[in-house]
Amino acid sequence: xxxxxxxxxxxxxxxxVGAVMQGQSSRFDSRADAEQRLADTQEINGPHCSGEIVDxxxxxxxxxxxxxxxxxxxxxxxxxxxxxLTVADAKSHGS
Length: 95
Description:
Blueprint: E1 3-10, E2 22-24, H1 31-45, E3 49-56, E4 62-63, E5 72-73, H2 87-92
């Protein structure tokens, strides 16, 4: 099982949005979703924000339970079938 998250940081000592110098996103089941989160973070913070996508062996926190429906976080309701998503769902996702 692989998940992906965005890690980002200030390159010039300025605080980023949220008054932080660095941060990371939740873990996604899709590398493309993590890349989009990083792109959004960099757009909001401007040129003094850099970052990378990191692979993780942990279960995703945000994933697509039903194909062709948007990803949802653990504890949220699947947009496809309406199930409340659990850690067990995340751990079995993609296995």
